[in-house]
Amino acid sequence: MAGNPRGNEVIDIAVRPAKVVTPRPKRWRRQAYKAVLGWISVFAAAVIRFLGPGIALRLGRSGGLIGWHLRAADRRVALENLALAFPEKSEDERRRIARESFARVGMCALEWVACARHDRWIAETVLEGREHVDAALAKKAGAIWVNAHVGNWELSAAATAKAGYPCGVIATTVRYPRVNKLSIDERARNGVVTIERDTPASGRELLKFFRRKDAALGILLDHDNNTPSVQVDFFGKPAWTAMGVAELSIRFGAPVVSGFFVRDPDGRRRVPVAPPIFPPENVPKSEQLRVVRDLTQQYTKRIEDHIRAHPQDWAWMHRRWKP
């Protein structure tokens, strides 16, 4: 808990430093397992691309529903999260939302693999509210795009790039090297730059990206991860949320936009973009933590509002609320 003086008032703000993660020893059996799984994934991706997005959606939905039945631990976490977020809903209704969430995660995963080689599918994903992206970039400080594990977030980034906006994402390195390379290559093919959060070069790449002043950097802000975090309200409960977006916004003067993937009942795909949130200028050091917390709360509220409107689209199987 950090005390932040403001006149005669003291504001208590909960801050958590980055977690220290001890790397696991690289045993040869584990390395071999990763290599084999990586090659299987590359082969499966090639098959899915050949089949196309339509068939991939159906296969992904079936795979997600199989996961709902087989992955008991993930199912339990999803139901616990839904009980925290929607205590007013019945248990049956929460189970329906969780089950559909698993199905849609499967759909989006295979859809992204398939549509990465089908430009028409990406081009037909409509970016709504482009004037808000234009307003953010007009400041000539770059822009940060707050996204979440909602719908097909990879497709929304590709659609943004196809709409003519230079675009990059900060991503966690996938544990399986070939799968990680596959993800980075597919993003690059669609004009999306990947900055791997866990690499030594990530800081330099961020600086290089913001020096462009005409690009949007996408960051997923709905998980509790190992980065320095501040506690904000999420569905009425305190949730640790990464401070990095707000800190980058203040440091570079970059406005923050948000836009989340929506799949309409008729199959239409769109990404509605909200008006930008501009960071205050010349924030005194004594006030910076409060401003970071307040901005992070605004970003989190946008994510919550979208999830409330489309609860089946969020990946509920991550343990979002931790002590």
Evaluate the radius of gyration: 20 Å
Overall average pLDDT: 91
Number of helices in the DSSP assignment: 11
Outline the low-pLDDT stretches. 3-10
Structural class: alpha/beta
Helix content: 40-55%
How much strand content do the residues show?
Answer: 15-25%
Quick one: biggest sheet? 5 strands, parallel
Number of strands: 13
N-to-C span? 13 Å
Order of helices and strands: EEEHHHHHEHEHEHEHEEEHEEEH
Q: Which sequence of strands runs across the widest sheet?
A: 7-6-8-5-11
User: Which overall shape is indicated by the principal axes computed on the Cα atoms?
Assistant: globular
Can you describe what's shown?
The protein is built from eleven helices and 13 strands. It has helices spanning about 30-50, 55-70, 70-85, 90-115, 120-125, 130-135, 155-160, 175-190, 200-210, 245-250, 285-310; strands at about 1-5, 10-15, 15, 125-130, 145, 165-170, 190-195, 215-220, 230-235, 235-240, 255-260, 260-265, 270. A five-stranded parallel β-sheet has the order 7-6-8-5-11. A three-stranded antiparallel β-sheet has the order 3-9-10, covered by helices on one side. A three-stranded mixed β-sheet has the order 4-13-12, with helices on one face. Helix 1 (about 30-50) packs parallel to helix 8 and helix 3 crosses helix 4. The radius of gyration is 20 Å and the shape is globular.
Fold blueprint:
Layout (H helix, E strand, L loop, with lengths): L1 E5 L2 E5 L1 E2 L11 H24 L1 H18 L1 H14 L5 H25 L3 H5 L2 E3 L1 H8 L5 E5 L5 H10 L4 E5 L5 H13 L2 E5 L5 H11 L3 E5 L8 E6 L2 E6 L1 H9 L3 E3 L3 E2 L5 E4 L12 H25 L14
Parallel strand pairs: 4-13, 5-8, 5-11, 6-7, 6-8
Antiparallel strand pairs: 1-2, 3-9, 9-10, 12-13
